[in-house]
Specification:
The complex is a heterodimer of chains A (115) and B (112). By secondary structure, chain A is mainly beta. In chain A, 0% of the residues lie in helices and 49% in strands. The radius of gyration of chain B is 13 Å and the shape is globular. Classes of the chains: A mainly beta (115), B mainly beta (112). At the A-B interface, strand 5 of A face strand 4, strand 5, strand 9 and strand 10 of B.
């Protein structure tokens, strides 16, 4: 059974950093591109970042370019999202997904950026 | 950025009815390789989204055949024949043809 389990969320002040992790199991992690998708409270879905199966290619939406870094450790079957210079508009539930397409999703982790 | 416009925003149905959701793109979603990276997702209340359809019309593993995706270019449709209680929630179309990848605004399917 495919499982994606996110961790690392919580409350953080504007301008500070936070790192999300996603532990994967039930499939060959190193064969899959992976992505992060977020959802602000009561809002729709927004793609954030994508990383290729080997980590050789990464893509970001413009508002997070230069502030967020997606990475992976295939030996640990773990995906990461380093988020720096956080803003209030980054407040959302962050989902780890296999992708693309986004076949499988984690349960999500809440990130609240507030003073 | 490619804008995906979903209509209607909300849809009230009776169980057993057919439901139809439209997704219109501001640009053609056919990629240079001939593939159209248009997908449909369903987010049930309190749950993570789940993949229903990829490549316009291909059902993901385990998705019932009452879900039918169609369309080309800029106009796409998701039809649900014989709506069942587990089909209720918010449906999103999504495109991965153009950077940045974008979702539609969502269509909420609820009971009349």
């Amino acid at each position: 059974e495919v499982q994606l389990v996110e961790s690392g969320g919580g409350l953080v002040q504007p301008g500070r950093s936070m790192k999300l992790s996603c532990a994967a199991s039930g499939f060959t992690f190193s064969n899959y591109g992976m992505a992060w998708v977020r959802q602000a409270p009561k809002k729709g879905l927004e793609w954030v970042a994508y990383i290729s199966y080997d980590g050789g290619s990464t893509y970001y939406r413009d508002p997070v370019k230069g502030r967020f870094t997606i990475s992976r450790d295939n030996a640990k079957s773990t995906l990461y999202l380093q988020m720096d210079s956080l803003r209030s508009e980054d407040t959302a539930t962050y989902y780890c997904t296999t992708g693309a397409p986004f076949d499988y999703w984690g349960q999500g982790v809440m990130v609240t950026v507030s003073s | 950025d490619v804008v995906l416009t979903q209509t209607p925003v909300s849809l009230s149905v009776t169980l057993g009815d057919q439901a139809s959701i439209s997704c219109r793109s501001s640009q053609s979603l056919e990629y240079s390789d001939g593939y159209t990276y248009l997908e449909w997702y369903l987010q049930k209340p309190g749950q993570s989204p789940q993949l229903l359809i990829y490549g316009v019309s291909n059902r993901f593993s385990g998705v019932p055949d009452r879900f039918i995706g169609s369309g080309s270019g800029t106009d796409f449709t998701l039809k649900i024949s014989r709506v069942e209680p587990e089909d209720l929630g918010v449906y999103y179309c999504f495109q991965a043809t153009h950077d940045p990848w974008t979702f539609g605004g969502g269509t909420k399917l609820e009971l009349k």
